[in-house]
Amino acid sequence: MHIHKYEKYWLVFGVATLVAFLIILGIGAFHQGSHPNSNKKTIDYEKVKEIAPFTNPGVHKVEGKDWDYEVVILASAFFYNPPEIEVPLGSKVKFIATSEDVIHGFEIAGTNINMMLEPGYISEYVAEINQTGEFLIVCNEYCGTGHTLMHSMLKVVDPNESK
Ligand SMILES: [Cu+2]
Hints:
This protein is of the alpha+beta class. Helices cover 17% and strands 34% of the residues. The strands form two sheets. Strands 1, 2, 3, 5 and 8 form a five-stranded mixed beta sheet that branches. Strands 4-10-9-6-7 form a five-stranded mixed beta sheet, with no helix packed on it. A hairpin with a 7-residue loop joins strand 1 (58-61) and strand 2 (69-76). The longest helix is centred in the N-terminal third of the chain and has 27 residues, at 5-31.
């Protein structure tokens, strides 16, 4: 079989591009641990308010875990429950969030905390809180007419500072 030399070049180029892409994807997934929201933790989004921990959104102190606080967040059009989160400086916080209707975002502006909240899936992120101040939490997934109004606030307080 005769293959034209330019066709051969294209075949080699195509296969090489594919291999390079798969290597980059492999390094990202297996070495750097970047994964999309997996099917690991799913939830019936229509009954989300009846399923723990979403029966009780808010900040909860926990004992005997790798983190000090669990912040349970329930997003819906167009607000977050709880509307305000307060955690002490130096704590390790696990954010546990989901949506009860459409896809919402959960981005704490000025930090690397940024999750997509999909109905039916539980999004989690553990972060060390090492800066005091007020951080705006915004929805960064367009979710409807009230999208721009959808926000919450993270307040980080220094427990050693007298109020
Ligand atoms: Cu939105």
